[in-house]
Amino acid sequence: MREAPGTPLTYGGAGVPRGLVAESLRELLAEIRYRAPPKSGRPLPLRGHYAGLLRIGAVTLAVTTDTVGTKTILAEQLGRWEEVGEDLVAINVNDLASVGARPAGLVDTISVAHPDPAVFRALGRGINRGLARARCSLLGGETAVVPELLRSTDLGATAIGFFPPGRRPVTGARIRPGDLLLGIPASGLHANGFTLARRIVAKSGAPLAEPRPGATGSLGEEMLTPTRTYVEASEVAAALPTTTGLAHISGGGVRNLIRLNARVRFTLDAWPEPSGIFRWLAEAGGIGSEEMFQTFNMGIGFVIATRASGAEELRRRWTRAGLRDAQVVGRVERGSGVHLPHLGLSYDRYA
Amino acid sequence: MREAPGTPLTYGGAGVPRGLVAESLRELLAEIRYRAPPKSGRPLPLRGHYAGLLRIGAVTLAVTTDTVGTKTILAEQLGRWEEVGEDLVAINVNDLASVGARPAGLVDTISVAHPDPAVFRALGRGINRGLARARCSLLGGETAVVPELLRSTDLGATAIGFFPPGRRPVTGARIRPGDLLLGIPASGLHANGFTLARRIVAKSGAPLAEPRPGATGSLGEEMLTPTRTYVEASEVAAALPTTTGLAHISGGGVRNLIRLNARVRFTLDAWPEPSGIFRWLAEAGGIGSEEMFQTFNMGIGFVIATRASGAEELRRRWTRAGLRDAQVVGRVERGSGVHLPHLGLSYDRYA
Fold first, then answer.
1. Would the CB atoms of A52 and B139 count as touching at under 8 Å?
2. CA atoms of A198 and A324, how far apart (whole Å)
3. Shortest alpha-carbon distance between residue A225 and chain B (Å)
């Protein structure tokens, strides 16, 4: 969903001033003032969040939409499409997971300049794997063959989820000082920051077909690793009343936490040392920590805010569900924004 | 939703053999075999139709997704974006209308090479108008600034609808010989066939800024006219048990009727003379009727199948709702496919 309009470096490098993106969005949203009558369903207010909520009869739906972005350019370079197929599902269901909704259905849009059956087969395999991980049905899709519009392949999807009986949306509004922040590791870069990451690789001259220093698989494969799916982690957490917030660390990096609640401070004083690929990108590109943490997930793909009193039970339930790699990454304090004290970093705004 | 993979001329001209598109889709769908457990909601089978259906608790949802396609290239040439903004909503809610679902929510994806606040403002105005016509809420969206992926602007959306208490999906399965086919006029080309239409205009040398022979507004404006919204027409029709089918005449032209029911023949023996823009395109491009009727809506944007016994009541209700331009365009017979006897045309397959 309408995420942070990128990072200064990313857009700056592409000749797109970040302010122009924000201004464009303001202009768009200022014009969309129509309010539908109650017989058309009732949207629930949740501005700037990961998903839109819609009440129809006794059911509350969550809806989110996102594209894989320029990670498809790497897929094309490597001739591998399963990974981005899986990404397409994962990035959307992880946004549903960020409001505590259970994924139910997905529709995809595959836009290509030229159709290649082998590419579609690989995409299908990846999408299927993503659906299985999220326990989500494919409801349909659209294929657009538009060589005049596209330079490369564009992958988008919309996911629809719902709140099972007895479960309410987890919005972050109840987060308060004293809550703990637990993080679940990312599988890699996921599908964010690729415009910058590809530029760093190109500048460094590092070959995609060989491992970076300290890695085993090739750099290309390492970067292409599909986005981890956090649906199960969210399902377990959202069932506990002590869970107060859920955040997919997607475009915008740790700043995503501000989407949950702007009236508390997220102090990430136990964020683990980022894994090798992030350290390598920072070094190879000469990118500072401030830029790295607001562009990439930096090793943690999903953050859960919980009352300190509920953390033990949450970990117990995750362990029963086979999820053993969650760790404390910080805590909630009085104040606002996101703070990484050991790095001297502070972010005030999501976008 | 995954529509007819275009027309031979269109794709042939662009160097994309139509068979390759169909083969790519087959490969994709063959890989997507995952079936979610019942606790994730229950998809209802409706293969090849306008929308996917999903049952959650007591609510049945309809979901559809579509892009404006290359009509955005015309918008860019003319520097006018309100019309395609309205199209983006209309093409999606019209697909919901084709299963008798009431639109509730929409999410959009606006992908651009460079953000332009004035373009976004105009798009917002058009989207807002489309939402108002469909009585639908905007639930969110995604903005992608991806100059490396895009040559031009790509507009996609997903619409979610539902069936109010007492209403069941209108799938076309109950259509039988003897049913009447009523048609509601299109506002123009809508958002289909633009790759071909733009090629004809370019070949003819006709200036977009001047009217074609016999028209008043400029050719560009005439082509850009937004897609008519058929939500109200469908709402009225879907409430009657005598309504057996609803069809948005979108990509694939009259062949869309085959999506409703492959075991009856749709005989369009009263199809009105297509309006001026269609006649002009056929003449200027030297395009035969077979190609025209399987690419463009040919003046009728929505077709309703009804028991003959229900036609009068349907027209009465439409009139009460202010809808007065529906007309009989044909009837259902034994057989299969779509037949236009006065033109000697037959279509056996949707795609």
1. yes
2. 32
3. 20
Give the chain B residue whose CA is nearest to the CA of A3. Answer: B142
- Yes or no, beta carbons of A160 and B132 under 8 Å apart: no
Instruction: Provide the CA A144 distance to its chain's centre, in angstroms.
Output: 25
Closest CB to B139: pick one of A37, A63, A147.
A63
Whether residue B64 and residue A107 make contact (CB cut-off 8 A), yes or no, is yes
Beta strands A102-112; A137-145: pairing state: parallel
Beta-carbon separation of B131 and A20 below 8 A: no
Provide the residue-wise pLDDT of chain A in tens; the chain has 351 residues. 764 333 333 334 444 567 898 899 999 999 999 999 999 999 998 877 999 999 999 999 999 999 999 999 999 999 999 999 999 999 999 999 999 999 999 999 999 999 999 999 999 999 999 999 999 999 999 999 999 999 999 999 999 999 999 999 999 999 999 999 999 999 999 999 999 999 999 999 999 999 999 999 999 999 999 999 999 999 999 999 999 999 999 999 999 999 999 999 999 999 999 989 999 999 999 999 999 999 999 999 999 999 999 999 999 999 999 999 999 999 999 999 999 999 999 999 987
What ipTM was reported for this prediction? 0.94
**CA atoms of B180 and B328, how far apart (whole Å):** 7
Measured CA to CA, the distance from residue A301 to residue A243 in angstroms comes to 17
Min Cα separation B194/chain A (Å): 11
